[in-house]
Specification:
The chain has a single domain, classed as 3-layer Sandwich (Rieske Iron-sulfur Protein), CATH 2.102.10. It is 10% helix and 32% strand. Strands 1-10-9-4-3-2 form a 6-stranded antiparallel β-sheet, with no helix packed on it. The chain has a 4-stranded antiparallel β-sheet with strand order 5-6-7-8, with no helix packed on it. The N and C termini lie far apart (46 Å). About 13% of the residues have low confidence.
Length: 142
C-alpha cells in the first residue's frame, strides 16, 4: 500500500507541469515598493471619504491610483497601461472612476473599482497593489 501511494505521489508530482507565466502580464514588471499615505495631510485627506480617489506618481511603474470604497475598503492599481509595454505615452490619467491611456492607437480605459477594462482591445486588467489602513495611515505595497 505504501509503495502504491509513493508511486501515485511521484506520478502526480511529475504530471503537473508548472507554468509560472500563466496569467502574468508580460508588459508590467513587479517592482517592490511600499508607501505610507497619511490621511491627515491635505494631499491624501480626500481618502477619508468614500467615493474619492488619489493619484500618486513616482511609485510603482507609472504611479498608482487609490480609491476609497467606504467601510475601510480601498483599491490601488498601477497607472501604466497593462496592455502594452511602458513607453512615453503609457501613463494613464484618471477622470472620475476611469483610468485612460493617452496612447493614440489603443483607446484603452479601465474601471478603477475593479481594474477591469471598460473600452479598447484589452487582454489584461490593471495591476493591483495591496492596501492596508491603520488609523490615519494607509500603506500601499507591491
Amino acid at each position: 500500500m505504501k509503495k502504491l501511494l509513493f508511486i501515485l505521489a511521484i506520478a502526480l508530482l511529475f504530471s503537473c507541469e508548472k507554468d509560472e507565466g500563466l496569467g502574468r502580464n508580460p508588459f508590467l514588471i513587479d517592482l517592490s515598493f511600499q508607501i505610507t499615505l497619511n490621511t491627515d495631510l491635505p494631499q491624501y485627506s480626500s481618502l477619508n471619504f468614500a467615493g474619492n480617489s488619489v493619484v500618486v506618481r513616482n511609485q510603482g511603474i507609472r504611479g498608482f491610483v487609490i480609491y476609497n470604497f467606504g467601510n475601510g475598503q480601498y483599491s490601488a492599481f498601477e497607472l501604466s497601461d497593462p496592455n502594452h509595454a511602458p513607453n512615453s505615452c503609457s501613463a494613464m490619467t484618471v477622470n472620475g472612476v476611469t483610468a485612460t491611456c493617452p496612447c493614440p492607437d489603443d483607446n484603452n480605459s479601465y474601471d478603477i473599482f475593479s481594474g477591469q477594462p471598460s473600452t479598447g482591445n484589452s487582454q489584461y486588467s490593471m495591476k493591483r497593489y495591496r492596501v492596508n489602513r491603520s488609523g490615519n495611515m494607509i500603506v500601499v505595497t507591491n
